[in-house]
Design a protein that fits this description.
Number of helices: 11
Strand content: 15-25%
Number of strands: 11
Shape: globular
Oligomer: single chain
Largest sheet: 7 strands, parallel
Order of helices and strands: EEEHEHEEEHEHEHEHEHHHHH
Distance between the termini: 26 Å
Strand order of the largest sheet: 3-4-5-8-9-10-11
Length: 291
């Protein structure tokens, strides 16, 4: 596993997004714990969660509690593991996602996340999404207070545009270490934010990094025919003898040294496959085949 910088912390170049273990269609607990343990075994040291990762009608924090149990039951060393959680979103009973960026909510939510994770401080706390009803500076001010009082060690923001990134940098300073936006072979509208984070020395964490590839990753030639836009990923994968998902993650790593993808996965086999992409370096000829 290669490593990359996230603030003053060194983490595996491929992180793990734990959301699939807690939302609709989640696996049983035994498989969920085995999946987290497989991620740790494979060198994934950035584990991404949120208080809103739970099934509709369930209890907030399901995913955080699950990660805490997984880390407690893991037989290996977890000193280098960074758990990143998020606050500012929730679930409605019909399955929609809500937004709440009020400072009082964020401060309360962070304290509850800290209790569930059972650590002295939250390694990385991220504002999950801007709340259009609340001035962004007010939400960021809550993160600054959490940093100042020691509840949070490092801060990040998610689903943010370039202006919001600059605003967060101004308010949080060097303690802003990560921006988590959607970015994948299929969704590239965060290119300006990716470039800006690279300029500012902030890690860029693509969520849903396998968009496009997941829809075209059927076995055999039929997978390429399903969506020819991503045929290049399949062709390179076939020549390498690896999965198209590995090629997509390696392509993301090649975009910029500050990129740390956080693919999900609900099976040990999936996370092991994703982790292997950290050591996969694409050639110029291979990159030329990728759109």
């Amino acid at each position: 596993m290669r490593y990359r910088a996230l603030g003053d912390v060194r983490v595996g170049a491929i992180g793990y997004g734990a959301m699939p273990l807690s939302i609709e269609g989640r696996p049983d607990e035994a498989r969920a714990l085995a999946t987290v343990h497989a991620a740790l075994d494979a060198g994934m040291t950035l584990l991404d969660t949120a208080d809103s990762y739970y099934a509709p009608g369930g209890e907030p924090g399901h995913n955080e509690l699950l990660l805490a149990r997984a880390l407690a039951s893991y037989g290996g060393d977890t000193d280098g593991v960074l758990v990143a959680t998020k606050g500012g979103r929730g679930r409605t009973r019909d399955g929609d996602w809500s937004v709440d960026g009020r400072p009082e909510h964020l401060k309360r939510a962070a304290k509850e996340s800290l209790r569930r994770l059972g650590t002295e401080a939250i390694g990385l706390y991220q504002l999950h999404k801007p709340d259009p009803a609340i001035p962004y500076a007010d939400s960021l001010g809550a993160l600054r207070e959490l940093l100042d009082d020691g509840t949070v060690r490092l801060a990040g923001i998610s689903n943010a545009d370039a202006h919001q990134i600059r605003q967060a940098k101004e308010i949080l300073g060097d303690r802003l270490v990560a921006v988590q936006n959607r970015y994948s072979p299929a969704v590239r509208d965060a290119e300006p934010e990716l470039r800006l984070t690279a300029e500012l020395g902030i890690a860029f964490l693509p969520w849903s990094p396998l968009g496009g590839i997941s829809r075209s990753s059927l076995d055999g030639a039929s997978g390429m025919a399903a969506d020819s836009s991503y045929a290049g990923f399949h062709a390179v994968a076939d020549a390498r003898g690896v999965s198209p998902q590995q090629i997509a993650l390696a392509w993301l790593l090649d975009r910029s040294p500050n990129v740390i993808p956080i693919p999900g996965g609900s099976r040990p086999e999936s996370v092991r496959d994703s982790a292997a992409a950290a050591d996969l370096v694409l050639t110029g000829q291979e990159l030329a085949l990728l759109p």
